Amino acid sequence: QVQLVESGGGLVQAGGSLRLSCVASGRTFSGYPMGWFRQAPGKEREFVAGIRWSVGGTYYADSVKGRFTVSRDNAKNTVYLQMNSLKPEDTAVYYCAARSTDTGRYYYGTDEYEYWGQGTQVTVSS
Prior knowledge:
By secondary structure, the protein is mainly beta. It has strands at 3-7, 10-13, 18-25, 34-39, 46-51, 58-60, 68-73, 78-83, 92-98, 115-116, 120-125.
């Protein structure tokens, strides 16, 4: 059974930083795309950042570009989201997601990922 477990969320002041981690278990995701999404209260879940394992290509939502960095450690089956210059509008539950196939493009939709973590809360105070 595939499991994704996020950690690293918390409360931080505006301008601060957090690093989220997502550990994948149950299968090896090497070569498969993974992504980070977030969902604020009353809003739909939205794409934040994505990464391919083998090629290392990364892509971001415009709202986080230049502030967030997604990376991976294949040996640890782990993907990270480094979040800098945090803003109150970044407050949300952050989810890690994975898909088991790669057709060579970027994946922005929630319906494009098969596996999801339970989420970790990030709260940014002003």
